[in-house]
UniProtKB/TrEMBL annotation:
<keyword id="KW-0963">Cytoplasm</keyword>
<dbReference type="InterPro" id="IPR014729">
    <property type="entry name" value="Rossmann-like_a/b/a_fold"/>
</dbReference>
<dbReference type="GO" id="GO:0000049">
    <property type="term" value="F:tRNA binding"/>
</dbReference>
<protein>
    <recommendedName>
        <fullName>Cytoplasmic tRNA 2-thiolation protein 2</fullName>
    </recommendedName>
</protein>
<dbReference type="GO" id="GO:0016779">
    <property type="term" value="F:nucleotidyltransferase activity"/>
</dbReference>
<comment type="pathway">
    <text>tRNA modification; 5-methoxycarbonylmethyl-2-thiouridine-tRNA biosynthesis.</text>
</comment>
<dbReference type="GO" id="GO:0002143">
    <property type="term" value="P:tRNA wobble position uridine thiolation"/>
</dbReference>
<dbReference type="GO" id="GO:0005829">
    <property type="term" value="C:cytosol"/>
</dbReference>
<dbReference type="GO" id="GO:0016783">
    <property type="term" value="F:sulfurtransferase activity"/>
</dbReference>
<dbReference type="GO" id="GO:0032447">
    <property type="term" value="P:protein urmylation"/>
</dbReference>
<dbReference type="InterPro" id="IPR019407">
    <property type="entry name" value="CTU2"/>
</dbReference>
<comment type="similarity">
    <text>Belongs to the CTU2/NCS2 family.</text>
</comment>
<dbReference type="Pfam" id="PF10288">
    <property type="entry name" value="CTU2"/>
</dbReference>
<comment type="function">
    <text>Plays a central role in 2-thiolation of mcm(5)S(2)U at tRNA wobble positions of tRNA(Lys), tRNA(Glu) and tRNA(Gln). May act by forming a heterodimer with NCS6 that ligates sulfur from thiocarboxylated URM1 onto the uridine of tRNAs at wobble position. Prior mcm(5) tRNA modification by the elongator complex is required for 2-thiolation. May also be involved in protein urmylation.</text>
</comment>
<feature type="region of interest" description="Disordered">
    <location>
        <begin position="413"/>
        <end position="444"/>
    </location>
</feature>
<keyword id="KW-0819">tRNA processing</keyword>
<feature type="region of interest" description="Disordered">
    <location>
        <begin position="279"/>
        <end position="310"/>
    </location>
</feature>
């Protein structure tokens, strides 16, 4: 297929397929008239329900046991409880409904038929199921607080615990303490004014959580950075809630459609290395900031608890990742789920970020070419990111790629030093371009950079060409922005911040480049005079 002009070359347009293949009858039972078309295949209402439940179980259940033990038949025995990350949107509403029907209410119609009535799969899987909602309204001006509506929605389902959080808990030391963590660390922030990301003491005492949140968001360089930071903060808040509730699993209501959006927008923001984590990830809490054992509920013996504690991880699963948004909407409609909905993350003057643009594009694509969205996800599923993991990012908790700092130092040309003293009259000596060395490379002050993954570093430093309006223009600007509590806690446990790191396994310390070394590297990329002419 060419990329030609569709008006002169009819072949340049992608052929639009018929909405459904062959007949209007359900592909499964063959005789009922279809009610829904899923990627060109027709299903009736009766066949759609088991199909959706099958797709949901097929993704979730192989991840339940700590060690995957092959196909079916074995009992599902998770290492802990379950947290449902709930946003109020369509996907997480459908997820909550499915989890409740299949694993809490133990609705017989959702059970697999194999193995008979006493099959171990027909028992309760997670002892406790917690719904955690993170309210983000305080991050944006004029947004409604939906906590009460969400609480009401969750109360439709019995036997679920509800934990409402607010996005500013990410900057709240009392919350951190409630999570069983020590708060004996000093007030540290980061200078977001330039790319050196220096770690500095906060000029005032640590502000209240709401001010800290708004100062942090106002210091970010782009609307995209604000959106992805709120997503990252929400994710880490959910993970700590999972840890605190003794949960081994955190499930998110990411549908096939929203997974395609997050994959494409993630890659666009430099998160290609974490493409696998978008589908499934295992999170290990920081050893330095692990909660004290008595705050983690457990009914085992002291010894068992300690060894369990040492290995505690949280598995993030997206059980709707094979189910498109249209199927979710159909499920919600037929099951009478009153979806609360989510508000758009906007503020006056802000241009849409990469995530919003990608979402608009993918939703349009899904309408016209329904198979393309699942192709995106399947293709991304085949990607195997190169490079090894060098510990965990101090901000988002995801694996960071080794060697990112060196690589970034090699390819980034951001600040041009002033031109050398004028000797331009001598034309016979060709001007050698001065190596571009950011000034900050020469200094040895502690920086946040070596602790960050590539996408987080990009989020904090990648500037827009035009000035970006802040959601909170009246927030007092400070040169040093506060950091989320988990970041502060981890930095604060090292007395000599940034210069040396206690746990070498955890974090790769950035190499400080000497002028000569940098010059050598830059020269690699310069053409020889002969080649150039
Ligand atoms: Zn049917
Ligand atoms: Zn990160």
């Amino acid at each position: 297929m060419s990329c030609g002009n569709p008006t002169t070359e009819p072949d340049a347009l992608m052929q639009r397929r018929k909405k459904y293949d062959k007949t209007k009858n359900c592909v499964r039972c063959k005789d009922a008239q279809g009610n829904i078309v899923i990627r060109h295949t027709v299903y009736c209402k009766n066949c759609f329900t088991p199909l959706l439940i099958h797709k949901f179980r097929r993704v979730l259940e192989p991840t339940v046991n700590p060690k995957p033990d092959g196909p079916r038949r074995t009992a599902l025995k998770p290492a802990g409880n379950l947290v449902i990350g709930f946003s109020g949107g369509l996907g997480s509403s459908v997820l909550l409904d499915l989890v409740h029907r299949c694993y809490v209410a133990l609705d017989k119609s959702t059970m697999p038929t194999e193995g008979g009535r006493d099959h171990p799969r027909h028992e309760r899987v997670w002892k406790k199921v917690t719904v955690c909602y993170v309210e983000v309204c305080d991050a944006f001006p004029g947004m409604d607080d939906r906590t009460d509506e969400i609480a009401h929605f969750v109360s439709r389902y019995d036997e679920l615990d509800f934990v409402p959080l607010r996005i500013q808990h990410a900057f709240d030391r009392t919350w951190w303490e409630r999570m069983g963590r020590s708060t004996s660390f000093s007030d540290i922030g980061v200078g977001l004014a330039d790319e050196s990301l220096l770690i500095e003491p906060l000029s005032q005492t640590y502000p209240d959580p709401l001010t800290a949140l708004r100062t942090y968001l106002s210091s970010l360089p782009t609307p995209t950075a604000i959106h992805s930071s709120i997503q990252a903060l929400t994710r880490v808040l959910l993970l700590h809630t999972a840890l605190q509730t003794g949960s081994s699993h955190l499930v998110l209501g990411t549908s096939l459609t929203s997974l395609a959006v997050s994959l494409i927008s993630g890659v666009a923001q430099g998160a290609g290395f974490n493409v696998r984590e978008e589908s499934m990830e295992e999170w290990t809490p920081d050893p330095e900031t692990r909660p004290t054992p008595d705050t983690v509920p457990d009914d085992g013996t002291e010894g068992a608890r300690k060894s369990k504690e040492a290995k505690r991880t949280v598995r993030i699963v997206r059980p709707l990742r094979d189910i498109g948004m249209k199927e979710c909407a159909t499920w919600a409609w037929w099951s009478h789920i009153p979806v609360v909905g989510k508000e758009k993350w906007v503020w006056p003057g802000a241009k849409p970020g990469i995530g919003t643009l990608t979402k608009d594009f993918i939703l349009g694509l899904e309408q016209d070419y329904p198979s393309t969205v699942s192709t995106i996800v399947r293709t991304c599923g085949k990607l195997a990111p190169k490079g090894e993991v060098a510990g965990k990012c101090i901000l988002c908790g995801r694996p960071a790629q080794r060697g990112v700092q060196e690589w970034k130092a090699r390819i980034s040309i951001r600040s041009q030093p002033p031109p050398p003293p004028s000797d331009s009259d001598s034309t016979d000596a060709p001007a050698t371009p001065a190596p571009v060395v950011p000034e900050s490379k020469a200094d040895t002050r502690p920086s946040l950079t070596p602790y960050l993954c590539y996408p987080c570093h990009t989020t904090l430093t990648s500037r827009s060409a035009r000035p970006v309006p802040s959601p909170w223009p009246d927030t007092a600007h400070s040169s040093v922005a506060p950091l989320p509590v988990w970041t502060e806690a981890r930095l604060g446990t090292h007395a000599d911040v940034g210069v040396s790191v206690a746990d070498e396994e955890e974090i790769a310390v950035a190499k400080k480049m000497g002028q000569e070394e940098m010059k050598g590297i830059v020269n690699e990329f310069l053409l020889d005079d002969e080649e150039a002419s």
